[in-house]
Amino acid sequence: MDSHKSQLEDLPNELLSEILKNLDARDVFRAFYQVNSRFNQLIQLFQHLQLTFHMNSNNFLKTNDEIFSFYVHTLIISPWINFNLQNFPRVRRLRLNNPLPKVLEQLQPNVMPHLEHLSVFYTYNMYEMVILHENIFSNRFVNLKSCELYEKQTLISIPHWTQSPSIQVLKTEYVDSTIFKIILGACPNLCFFKFYLYPTNGMTTDIPLHNNLKHMIIEVQDADWYNDDNTISAFLESVPKLEQLEIHRRPDSQNMRGYIQDYDWLSSIIKHRLPILRRFRFYFHLLEEEKLMGCIDENIQIQIQSNFHDVHKGPYQAQIFIDRE
């Protein structure tokens, strides 16, 4: 009978790598770095993996962790944490949740030259975000492919943008016609764009054609269905190569029942603006308010479904989803 006991080191390198990359990055380095030359070599290969580190008040980096931080590719920062971004020179994916201004100041192209995916969620309007917007949309993060910029109060800032040809995915909050026009000009290779339509009484003209945008998601808090549709129509006119369109509407008026009875659910706009559209999804979010719930009962919802499918008979797939929030 074989009395040999299997040990971790008996596993092949491929299996060891699969195991280690699913462990917490800090624990991997503390447990296995400098154990032997084989484990050191495996860890050296981690530069091709995406080690994730969650920064919070309980796990600040210490000096002996510098080798660990060098191999972190995904960095997620909890709210209001003060730390030094220069400790993470190889980060590819960064997520900041309500960052301190002094942290945003550090977010510079020379500090994170390899950054490919950036997510910033912030509550308060900060001057540092203006600088960040300029860096993002002026191609200073030359490897940046996707960007999420979520702020609950104001429009995205546009000081002195040039172009960022590397950006392919953009998700943001409030966008009006002026911001929409500038973003399309600043991101010529943008293929996915998600944003919240900012209500406006005016409409910017001469929005340039953008032939690379393939998928767009627009969220609308309906104040005026007619004006919103005009804005959406102008936006769609500038993206004729769009293949997937998703609209989210959240009506907040008791008068919406009158709007939807004869509403064509953007069908005429789509047929006129988007000749190669393949998929259209309309999300009708109804607020859980007593007055609004009485306007759209179950029978009206059935009628909406029927009318939607009647008007969207074309070469593209169309679906409507009705829910209560």
TrEMBL record:
F-box domain residues are: 5-44
Q: Which organism is it from?
A: Rotaria magnacalcarata
Lineage of origin = Eukaryota, Metazoa, Spiralia, Gnathifera, Rotifera
Q: Which Gene3D superfamilies match?
A: Ribonuclease Inhibitor
Q: Which Pfam families match?
A: F-box-like
* The protein's name: F-box domain-containing protein
